[in-house]
Structures are given as structure tokens and as C-alpha cells.
Amino acid sequence: MSKKSRATDGAAPVLARLAGALVVVFLVTLVAFLLSYLSPTDAAVRSFAEAGVSPTESQLAEKRAELGLDRPFAEQYAGWVAGVFRGDLGTSLRSGEPVAEVLLDALPYTLALALSSIVLTLLVSVPLALACAYWQGGPLDRAVQAATYLFCSMPSFFVALLLLYVFSVRLRTLDVLSTRDLAGILLPTVATALPLSAWLTRQLRTVAIGQLSSAYVDGLRARGVPEPCIVLVHVLKNSLVPLLTLAGTAFGMLLGGSAIVEGIFGWPGLGFESIKAVGHRDYPFIGAYALVAAVVYLLVNAAVDGACRLIDPSVEGEAGDD
Fold first, then answer.
1. Whole domain around residue 284: which residue ranges?
2. What domain count does the chain have?
3. Is the pTM of this model over 0.85?
4. Residues 284, 89: contact at Cβ < 8 Å?
């Protein structure tokens, strides 16, 4: 095989992934725009209501024309896409600010919440999963299985409401609704991390049980390798690829699924801003939010895929065979 053909074969999967990513981004933004367009909320009516004005039909029509809401859906979406290619995400219909500025102000808060949640999730899930796999069927395993089953059935917004009621209403120990510092991010982090920790613990436990029953573990035990070394070094090392894959999936779930939690705690991230945008039918922001969420999710998955290939080169070979 010539160098040119090898280069072509190597570039083909990359181009295919890039094309797939572009299709995903297009579909995500299209669906977001369509749902916004079909919403019964009228941004023109909301703008007059917030100003305390009772508009006439002619004033409403003029406002809709000013906001571009009188144009057909295809024209609105095509105009927004053209703006994106020019580097212009449009102007927020709710605040009148450039959408890019609103995104840049809110994105650090969402990333901080996602990163803190994924760190807490890993700190809880990895030790519990390894312990449950090692003592499979024991009291600890049964207790953790019951707890994870319970928390897996709880959506993060339900956990958020429970935490808000206990710590802010009953105990009055955290004034989370008026702060953006450590106290403000603590409960949102726990609310998003608890259901994810339960899910990841169950998934990783299954992986670790498979590793502990494999032949190489029997060989290590036959050579007299201590049990803690087997579990914490060898089993954990061989579980890194599925762990990274699961963590990447969890991070993507956090980006898209933390909106309600941000809204409950008033955490000023992208999710909180998107909730306000939906209430105003702010389609430029909704489309930009969908675009950013899709791109970040794809970048995280690409980074996870690259890390998995570095840890286990056979992953690349298997991907190529497929």
C-alpha cells in the first residue's frame, strides 16, 4: 500500500466524523429553532407587557416586523445560519444585547457547574463501584445497589428541590439564591451529581466485575500480588477506557440537562438563560444555545475518543475495522 493511499484511508474516517458532526449541529439547531417557532409565546406581546403597555394591533405588527417574527420560518432560520457563518449570532429579543455577549457571560458558570459535578461524580462513583465489584453480593454491595437504584429514579430537578427545601427553607444554612460563589454552586453541584453518581456507579460496577473475573486477575493472584494492588492498579487501569467513555457521556448530559437545576437555584449559566429565552421566544439565543451545547458535546466526545486511543491503541484498530 502506497503512502498516498494510507493517507487517504487515514483521512476518510476523520472526514466522515466531521461530516457527521456538522449534520448533528445542523439538526440540533434546526429542531431548537422549530420548537421556538411553534411556541405560542409572542415576543412582541411580552416586550409590551414588561413595559406595562397595552399595544394596539398595529403596534404589535410593527414590533413583530422589527424583531423579524413576521418572516416565514425558513427565512428566519436561513438568516440566522448566514449570520453564524459571518460570526454574528444575532441580538437577544429578550434583553436587546448581542447573543454572543450573553453566551460568554453565562458559559463560565455552566462549565464550572458541569466540571464540579463530574469531579464529584467520579470521586463518589469510582471507589463505590470498585468496592461493590470486589465484595459483590455483600452487605455493602446490596446497600449501594439499593441507593443507586433510588437515585437513578430521581431526576436532578427533584433532588434540587429537596436540597433547596432542606438547606435553604428548613435549616436556613445556605442562601443559595443570592450568591454566585462557592455557596451558590454547592447545592447545584450535589443536585446534578447525585443521579449521575448513581448511574455511573452501576455502570462501572458491571465493568469492574467483568475485569475481576478475567484470566489476568487469576494470574496476578497466583503470583501473590496483593488484592489492593489488583483492584486499585490493574482493574482500575483496565477500566479506564469505559470509565472515560461513561464520564464523557455524563459530561454531555450535564451540559444539556442542568438547565432546570440552574433555574431552580438561579445559577446564571446557559441553562438559566435558555429558560428565560424560551419564555420570551428568543429564537436567536435559543439557536445559539443549541449550537454551543452541540459543539461542546462533540468536542468533549472527540477528546474522550482521543484519550481512549492513547490509553488503548487497539480502540483505533477496532474503530478502523468497523
1. 99-321
2. 1
3. no
4. yes
